[in-house]
Amino acid sequence: MPKYTKYLEFSQKERTAIRERDNYRCIFCQIGYEMPPTAVPEMDITDIMHYIPRSSMGLGIRQNGAVGCRYHHHMMDNGSSGNRKEMLGMFRAYLDEYYPDFTDTERKYDKWSFLKKEKPYV
Hints:
Elements: H1 12-21, H2 27-30, E1 46-50, E2 65-69, H3 70-77, H4 84-98, H5 113-116
C-alpha cells in the first residue's frame, strides 16, 4: 500500500455530513438489502464506509462515503460472500444520486493532481 496520508480518513466534519445525509442509517438497511432472518447486534453499530477503499487511495470525503452497519459493511468488504460487486454498484448509484458529476478519479488521492489540471492559455 502506498504511504499513508490523512486525506484517506474521514474528518469529523465529513463524518457528520455523511451521517446527516444518510439519516444516520445504513444505506443497505434502508432498502432492505440481504437482511438476516433475525436481528443481529452488528446491525446496531454503524460505520462510515469508503466506496473506493483506503487501500486503493480512496479519499475520506462525503462523495466517497456512506453510513453502513457492521453487518453490511463486513458483507461488502468480504468478497467471498459473492455480494461485493452488487453492493458496490448499489453504493455507486447511491452516491451518484447526490453527486452525479463526481468521478471515481476525483474520489482517489493523487498527490500530483494539481499538475494534471489543464490551464487555459490566454
